[in-house]
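Re: that backbone. Tokens:
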């Protein structure tokens, strides 16, 4: 099962970066909590790729295709590593002031570079025409990113709903 190595590597980088950014060091508790919370992200990306992979020519087997496709995660690995290291080496004041700007720059760069890498992958590895490769990238990203956002939204609802009593007490001045 070689196709499982790269999604697990992606999860490892996500969890380590989150642990570094949140606490400034590797924390096993944060690592395991984050790994559990973010386990769906690599799975969603694999499913989104599988939808695109199954819709056209398949010169590679699925395991080889997903393995080589996920080689294109290096821009995300770089962005996550930079964010994790910034959280680890900066003071809380500097992190509060600069984290969103550095995060936006890293993520924008990762998005642009990975879009180009994915477009080239669909052309060169799966033999798709340039237009078809563009459609594949758009479909894969639309499915993968919208499912990821939906996943985070659904998992955040219980946390947000627990804030309702506090918000009501602040607005109306009494505890319900």
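Recovered sequence:
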């Amino acid at each position: 099962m070689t196709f499982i190595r790269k999604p697990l590597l992606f999860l490892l980088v996500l969890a380590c970066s989150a642990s570094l950014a949140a606490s400034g060091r590797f924390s096993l508790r944060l690592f395991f909590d984050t790994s559990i919370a973010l386990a769906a992200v690599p799975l969603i990306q694999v499913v989104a790729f599988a939808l695109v992979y199954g819709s056209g020519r398949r010169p590679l087997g699925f395991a080889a295709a997903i393995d080589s496709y996920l080689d294109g995660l290096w821009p995300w690995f770089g962005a996550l590593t930079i964010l994790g290291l910034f959280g680890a080496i900066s003071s809380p004041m500097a992190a509060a002031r600069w984290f969103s700007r550095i995060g936006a720059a890293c993520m924008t760069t990762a998005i642009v570079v990975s879009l180009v890498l994915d477009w080239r992958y669909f052309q060169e590895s799966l033999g798709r025409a340039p237009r078809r490769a563009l459609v594949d990238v758009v479909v894969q990203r639309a499915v993968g990113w919208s499912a990821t956002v939906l996943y985070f939204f659904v998992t955040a609802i219980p946390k947000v709903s627990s804030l309702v009593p506090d918000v009501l007490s602040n607005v109306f001045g009494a505890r319900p």
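The chain has a mean pLDDT of 85. Helices lie at 5-23, 28-38, 40-53, 62-69, 74-89, 92-124, 130-161, 164-172.
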